[in-house]
Design brief:
Number of domains: 2
CATH topology of the largest domain: Endonuclease, Chain A
Oligomer: single chain
Number of strands: 18
Shape: globular
CATH superfamily of the largest domain: Endonuclease Chain A
Radius of gyration: 23 Å
CATH architecture of the largest domain: 2-Layer Sandwich
CATH class of the largest domain: Alpha Beta
GO molecular function: phosphatidyltransferase activity
Structural class: alpha+beta
Largest sheet: 18 strands, mixed
InterPro entries: PLD-like_dom, PLipase_D/transphosphatidylase
Protein name: Phospholipase D family protein
Number of helices: 20
């Protein structure tokens, strides 16, 4: 049997969106100036970099690799694992559907750790959540804990100083994955400044992982940022993490080491030169993060969407409720994100473990497939795969974002090309409604001011669950590295099926084909509510913009 692992927010999507959508009406002259000024700056920066020979990527000098510190039976977190252990199963699992609970679980692990903290994230923002997490890491290091933080470099603009100040603390190391040569400017400018390295820079590390004392781990869809933990007043994501203990954590730690020691990672000090002594940088860190000392996290003590108590409370009590059974951790090899020149024109063997194992389990399904993917572009092969399962009598259901809820409209533009074929094949399609998810009566369940789906999960026959970072789209398939857990515990798979059902019935539209083969949206899903003949809840100008631009967006980059 193969092994699995499931935002792919791409540069190409963001850049096209930035350059084709005006936020407010402007006269033609002002629009031209607004476009030309940043482009002129990018051109000048590229020219200067080329003349100075600095277009290459930052390279770190040879260094000795570091590896996971083995778990200690005497460590407090190891003792909690043993107190939580059930008679059956090698690994324990606990779903974290609530944003506040998921953040508090991470902070509690950081507080209780005594040996090591290893973090790997696609996005680690410098907002209140990011700064609070950094202070927790600093505090752990001050207690003697070794801290290793690995961040993909795509969205680190403006964070070099803060990350360098964090790394100035003893026992703290910060590394960037696949870093850019240009440290200033936006995403578009950073790509434009290294035009000959686009092939490599377009490959990103999309993994999410938090490991404490090699005893506990959290993985799933959440990055580190306010909107992933229901702390953003403007809008938040529906997301899902898994807390894991036992044998599977050892595999996750080894996968972290592969990335940490890979040729694609560079220490922060080699891209952000220190401008002061370590003690001054530590003082600066205190100044930059002081405002992160926030009051108690709202909702952290409340029961989650499954009615379960706070994980942080259970850690404090010394025993955590886990579902025990078997499971595996899968991660694409770091070489998937290296250019062809670095792999002699060949992709590393086994570099796409996550996708291959997900597909194998879809093919083996006999009763039901529940797929949740915020960015869903199945392609012809994906349509055929799901259609073949439906022909076998398997009930196939997909939950994804609507045009109104997605933060990547060009991805939606590619996805909607496949909706008629999927519906004709018998696949049930559901799209999240931000208005319904954000209603007052739904906030206890979703905790949202505006709904946006970010959960990536696959439930097979309500017996197996795959949850992690992988979207069902070309970028996750061929470009980004991904990670995931395969959990063979029916209790956990059934809980995710329950969450998906709640999302569909209370916060989604269901799609169907009319007698004339036009797509219609029924709200609420499965109900007798109003029928929409067009993309519901989305603005007219967004529909027009998408109609004009979607055909020009390369599907393989989305």
């Amino acid at each position: 049997m193969l092994k699995l692992g499931l935002n792919s927010s791409a540069f190409s999507i963001s850049a096209l969106s930035d350059f084709t959508c005006a936020t407010k009406p402007l006269d033609m002259k002002q629009q031209i100036l607004n476009r030309l000024t940043p482009l002129w700056r990018v051109a000048m920066a590229s020219t200067l970099l080329a003349l100075s020979g600095c277009l290459g990527l930052p390279q770190s000098p040879p260094s000795s690799p570091t590896h996971t510190l083995a778990a200690s039976a005497d460590a407090p977190l190891s003792k909690v694992v043993e107190a939580s252990r059930a008679a059956q199963g090698t690994s324990g699992f606990r779903l974290l559907p609530s944003g506040p609970d998921a953040l508090q679980a991470r902070l509690e692990l950081a507080r209780l750790a005594t040996r090591s903290l290893d973090l790997q994230y696609f996005i680690f923002q410098s907002d209140s959540t990011g700064r609070e997490m950094m202070r927790a890491l600093r505090d752990a290091a001050a207690r003697g804990v070794r801290v290793r933080l690995l961040i993909d470099d795509l969205y680190t603009q403006g964070q070099d100083e803060l990350l360098a100040c964090l790394a100035a603390h003893e026992r703290v190391e910060v590394r960037l994955f696949n870093p850019f040569a240009l440290r200033a400017g936006g995403v578009f400018a950073r790509f434009a400044a290294s035009p000959f390295f686009f092939g490599r820079l377009n490959h990103r590390m999309h993994n999410k992982l938090f490991v404490a004392d090699a005893a506990w781990a959290i993985t799933g869809g959440r990055n580190i940022g306010d909107e992933y933990f229901t702390r953003n007043d403007a809008g938040n994501f529906i997301d899902l993490d898994v807390l894991a203990a036992g044998k599977v954590v050892g595999d996750m730690s080894r996968q972290f080491d592969l990335y940490w020691n890979s040729a694609a990672t560079v220490p922060i000090e080699y891209v952000a030169a220190r401008s002061a002594h370590a003690h001054a940088l530590r003082d600066r860190f205190e100044t930059l993060t002081r405002s992160a000392s926030a009051p108690a996290l709202a909702g952290a003590d409340a029961p989650d969407a499954l009615g379960r108590s706070s994980v942080a409370k259970e850690f404090a009590a010394g025993r955590v409720h886990l579902a025990w059974g078997d499971g595996e951790s899968y991660a694409d090899l770091p070489g998937k994100a290296l250019s062809a020149s670095q792999t002699q024109g060949r992709q590393e063997h086994g570099s796409n473990l996550v996708r291959l194992n997900a597909l194998e389990h879809i093919r083996a399904a006999s009763v039901e497939i529940l797929l949740t993917s915020p960015y869903f572009i199945p392609g012809r092969a994906g349509v055929d795969l799901l259609a073949e399962a439906a022909r076998r009598g398997v009930k196939v259901s997909v939950l994804t974002n609507s045009l109104a809820s997605t933060d990547q409209p060009l991805v939606h533009g590619a996805y909607r090309r496949y909706r008629p074929a999927l519906l004709t094949a018998g696949v049930a399609l559901f799209e999240l409604s931000p208005q319904r998810a954000g209603r007052e009566e739904q906030r206890k369940l979703f905790g949202l001011s505006v709904g946006g789906l970010h959960t990536k999960s696959l439930v097979i026959d309500r017996k197996e669950l795959f949850v992690g970072s992988m979207n069902f789209d070309p970028r996750s398939d061929r470009i980004n590295t991904e990670s995931a857990l395969a959990i063979h515990v029916p209790e956990v798979a059934e809980d995710v099926a329950r969450l998906a059902a709640l999302s569909k019935m209370q916060a989604a539209h269901q799609l169907r084909l009319s007698e004339g083969q036009a797509i219609e949206w029924i709200t609420p899903a499965g109900g007798e509510g109003p029928v929409h003949p067009d993309e519901p809840e989305s603005e007219f100008w967004l529909k027009i913009w998408l109609l004009l631009t979607s055909e020009f967006a390369p599907e393989g980059w989305l």
